[in-house]
Amino acid sequence: MSCAAGTRRLRIGTPVHQPPREAGAAAFSCAEISSYCRRVLDLLLGNCRLPGGSAPVDLAIAGGRIVGIGPARGPARETVDVGGHLVTPGLVEAHIHLDKALLGDRVSGSAETAADAIRLTAIAKRGFTAADIEARGRRVLDLAVAAGTTAMRAHVEVDPIVHLAGMEAMLALKREYAPAIDLQLCAFAQEGILQAPGTEALLVRALEMGADLVGGCPYNDTDARRHIEIVFALAREFDVDADFHVDFSDEPEHLHVREIARQTMRTGWQGRVAVGHLTELAALPAEEQGTLIGVLAAAGIGVISLPLTDLYLMGRRDERNVRRGLTPIRRLLAAGVPVALASNNVRNPFTPIGTADLAHLTFVTAVAAHMGTPDLVRQLVAAVTTHAARILNLRDYGCAEGSRADLVVWDCDRLDEIVTALPARRLVVKAGRVTVEHERRVIERWRVGGTDG
User: Fewest CB within a 10 Å sphere: which of 2, 7, 100, 360?
Assistant: First the structure.
């Protein structure tokens, strides 16, 4: 009898059982098999150490969800003993540009400012095709999935330069990678809306094609307020969330986030709006900064810090006491504003480096944002898990009973080690199925074999 193509057990775990049957009895009927299979778990992860937990527990998974936490119960199609290692919810990439990733070999010159990066990328975009975008996006998705990312929001540029080629490519990748990652697509107006005639119509078409939300970039347009109004109008028309690139400068010369907060509350879109970068907030005097942070909290706006890009492009004109250029993560968190860390760009004029591994961002931000205490280190992990999931409005996310079984098994025992030690991933689980299994082999020949001569 088989409930699936086969059963599998890794390391130590509860074996897969079959119902008792007397010798010589007739074969199981289809009804008996169906009844039995409903009682078989899809996956049993044994000996898991959960965030905040002390003793290891077993996770029973069926139908893509965690259905039990505690001692192992019932047979499973696949059983894995994780040996007391840490298990967390899957990583959540809250802001990335797959369509303009990996451009190092086709861009000449280095970006000194955000405006330079936009200009250089716009030149490269003239040579983009759907096939090219898909190929580069696939390479980054492979990196992210292997690193434990199970949900991602990708900004897809829609404008008179690239038209809808990015949407075509990303929709194909969304279907292809569905077994491994949930991909949200944001129709994004990088080149502006008013200064790039035809963009609004293209945004509408992208939403009709299946974009999950709409995004804007008011600092790169001729009328920031009208730009913001158009994005909110589209969000309301299609009943989708909105996500803005905003206030990306060393000095508080834009502060468009104030208008975004006003429009958020006017339209009733609290909890459905995110802003990325927001580096200008750090340049405000403490009292004014605190007031604006309070407005963001009241409007239910999530903030996405993009540390690699912001550290790279901000502070370029400072000759002494060079600014770090990060939004004030600690003050935002203290006020109850959810803050995510995200990759933004991978190896292009905005960010010449990148691995699509969100753990690396926690490592960098621990130093750059002075977040080294135990409580702040836990907040850094939350910035690539629970806070990011909240900003993306992911339902049933976490490690509790009833949560979606999107999980990462880490090669460590404690939550803080994700930040402090960058441990390898052992397993990645998506919707209750093991999607990635890492094998690590190190031979210290100097210990066991000595040296010749």
Answer: 2
Residue 260 has pLDDT above 50, yes or no: yes
H or E element at residue 289? helix 286-299
* Sheet with 41-48, edge to edge strand ranges: 8-10, 76-81, 41-48, 57-62, 65-70
Q: Which domains does the chain have, with CATH numbers?
A: 8-88+399-437 (2.30.40.10), 91-391 (3.20.20.140)
Is residue 174's pLDDT more than 80?
A: yes
- The residue assigned the tokens 């990306």 is 248
Q: Average pLDDT, stretch 349-373?
A: 97
pLDDT of residue 20: 39
pLDDT digits (tens, 9 = 90+) for 104-159: 888 877 788 888 999 999 999 999 999 999 999 999 999 999 999 999 999 999 99
**Structural contact between residues 265 and 294, judged by C-beta atoms closer than 8 angstroms:** no
SS3 308: helix
- Tokens representing residue 220 in the block: 């790169």
Q: Where are the alpha helices (DSSP H) in 38-88?
A: none
Tokens for 100? 């303009």
Q: Residue 342, SS3?
A: coil
| Overall size of the chain counted in residues | 453
CB atoms within 10 A of CB 416: 16
Going by C-alpha positions, the residue among 108, 79, 99 that lies closest to residue 186 is 99
448 contacts: CB under 8 Å, gap ≥ 6: none
Answer for the pair 292, 246: CB distance below 8 angstroms, yes or no.
Answer: no
345 contacts: CB under 8 Å, gap ≥ 6: 96, 97, 100, 101, 308, 309, 351, 354
Query: How remote is the C-alpha of 435 from its chain's centroid?
Result: 17
- Report phi then psi at 387, rounded to 5: -65, -45
- In the chain, the amino acid numbered 400 is A
The reported pTM is: 0.91
Torsion of CA 312, 287, 371, 395, to 10 degrees: -90
Decide if 103 contacts 110 (C-beta within 8 A).
no
